[in-house]
Every structure is written in C-alpha cells, then in structure tokens.
C-alpha cells in the first residue's frame, strides 16, 4: 500500500518552514512534490517523507526561482507501534540531540559535519522533525545486504570516533547531557512491546536454528533458553561504571543509520550519521559492538577487526587531543575489555537486527508484520536467509565461549 501523504504536509507548511530556516520572508512556495524517503524494511520507528519545494524569493531587486529538498520525519500511524515509540520517548531524544547536543558537538569539532541540519521540530499533533535532505549533497545509503567493505568501515569507524570525541567535549562543557541520554535500545524501562520484539526475535532464531544442518544443536537449545533473559542482560550492560570511559553513543549504529558520499569514480570518500532516537551515555563499546554485529561484511569482520579497533582508538585519541578534552581516552587494553563486557549488546543485535540487514528486499517487512498478533506471533522472514545462517554459525562458538548462551 502506498504511503499516504498527510494533509498538513502542504505548500503553506513548507513555506513557513523555509521562511524560518532561510530567514527570508519573501519566499513563496509555488509547488511541492512529496514521496516516501525510505523503502519498506529500512525504517521502523517513524514515517519519513522527502519533499522537494519549488519557490520564488527576492534577491536584491529581482525575483528568482529556487528549489530545496527536505526530510520530514514524523510518527507512525495510530496503533500499538506508534504507542511504543511515543512511550519510549524516541522523538524527544532525537529533538534534544538535533537542536542542542549535536550543535555543541559540531561547534567543538569545528571541521566535522556529524549530521544534517534540523530546520524545525514539533512535539505534538503530530510530533515531527524537518531535517536537511543530504541526498543533494551526494550522500546515500550503502548496500546493507552486501555488508560494508573495508573502505566503508574505515569511514564509519572514523565517523563514530569523532562523534564520540565531540560528545566527550560537549559533556565536559554541559554535564547535563550525561543525564539526558540514558535509555538506548535495550532498557528495562521501555514499553513491553520493545522487549517483546527482541525476545520474539531470539525465540524465532532459536526455532529456525533447529533446521540448520551446519550448527551444533546445543546452540539452538541454548538460544531458546537465553531468549527470555538476554534483553534484560543487554539492558544491565548499559549501567554506568565509574571506572570506564564514557561517551554519548549513537545507540543504533548500523548500516541504515549512516550515509556515504562517493567521488566520480565511485570511490567512497565521506560519511555522515542519521537517526538519533536511541542515543545513550555509556561505554563506546556499546556503539562498536552494535556496529560490528550488524554492518561490516563477514570478510571484513574476520580479517580486519583489530585494524578497525586500532583505527577507532587512533582517531578518538587524536580528535580528543585536538579539541582540548580534559578527559583521557581509554587504552587499547581498556577498550578491548569493554568490548568483551558489552558483547551482549552486539549479540542481541546480531540475533534480531542483523537478519533485517541481510534480508532480501522482496522479503522486507514492516514492524507490524514482524510482530504479528496474538494469533500469529512474531514472523520474521529474514531468519530464513542463508547469508544470515552463515554469519550466525560463524559467531556462535565465540558467544558460547563468552557465556552469552548460558541461561
């Protein structure tokens, strides 16, 4: 079914946004064209529209024509999934990030654009953000099914390292930021529907694993046993430890929440972040574990994991020094220790988010289809993907060694 364009998303609304964002009362919108901004299976907690506006404005004594593209991000239709997003306060978090925290981080970093500009926010009827469309700047999503190659991963790691460094500086300047971002994706205070998605996903995986021929069946039994407790364990892993190094994590750092830019030869040259609904103050291992378990290709993970960790720490340390952070960066030993401790975060992500990353576009589902209902609970077609099966089979021995499969 085609995405219905809301009646309020009209010429008058866009004209009001443009006048404010461009600081130009002479703007008169001639027409707008609005389309869905994402494909099915690419976004689960909001509806996103891309609106291109053609408008007139004064330039000196002349009247000229101009064009601008905007992303309008708003709540899901009324129903249980919208209630989940509202109760979890996901839009509140993103509005705080995009109107205050990110501005501070970018001003401290000076030469690094972390995200698109935020032109307008609204906290009710409906809740929304109007954001810069990064596509005209050449940014686009990478191929999530292929997994990120080394060049893409190096940019993604460098980008998150600078994001983290900027957050350290921002928190030193405004300690209140440490208190504002305290939920993330795994949190016991979230609505029960959030927990249901992850528990249902892990049980669904365990059921499918029983039909896999290349896996020790003890792992399928263990997966079913830990399904009920892993979400809470991932939530517990975010409890702050005063002895650890802390940053503001993106919180949902996977391939669909970053965009890349390419040169004329198709070489990837730049990276930027999107979607700040799940930001979380805590160990940087949260973002790193989540990223490693959802986004790189299996080849990159096997060959270049240590290279990427070293690159992260090098960029983090250099950036923190450059912008004058008083806090000391972690040592490599400290970071690796944190990664082991936070692997539960990536483990749950691999069991529930990675299948969505690897699913064929023809089999992509929205959140309602995945969650199902009381008569037909949890039905994620993504678990049937052979590429996902290979990825999980390779990781299971390490998770078992770390005790993550023990109930």
Protein model, in words:
There is one protein chain. The chain is α+β, with helices and mostly antiparallel strands. The protein has a five-stranded antiparallel beta sheet with strand order 1-2-3-5-4, with helices on both faces. Strands 6-8-9 form a three-stranded antiparallel beta sheet, covered by helices on one side. Strands 7-10 form a two-stranded antiparallel ribbon. A hairpin with a 5-residue loop joins strand 8 and strand 9. Helix 8 packs parallel to helix 11. The chain is globular and about 75 Å long. The relative contact order is 0.13. Pfam families: EcKL (PF02958). It comes from Aphidius gifuensis (Parasitoid wasp).
Oligomer: single chain
- The CATH class assignment of the largest domain is Alpha Beta
CATH topology of the largest domain: Aminoglycoside 3'-phosphotransferase, Chain: A, domain 2
Largest sheet strand order: 1-2-3-5-4
Helix content: 40-55%
Write the element-wise H/E pattern from the N-terminal end onward.
Answer: HEEEHHEEEHHHHEEEEHHHHHHH
* Strand proportion: 15-25%
Largest sheet: 5 strands, antiparallel
Which architecture of the largest domain does the CATH hierarchy give at level 2? Alpha-Beta Complex
Number of helices: 14
**Shape, principal axes of CA atoms:** globular
Number of β-strand runs: 10
User: Domains counted in the coordinates: how many?
Assistant: 2
Derived from helix and strand composition plus strand pairing, the structural class reads alpha+beta
What are the segments in which pLDDT stays under 50 over at least 5 consecutive residues? none
Alpha-carbon distance between the termini? 42 Å
Mean pLDDT: 89
Radius of gyration: 22 Å
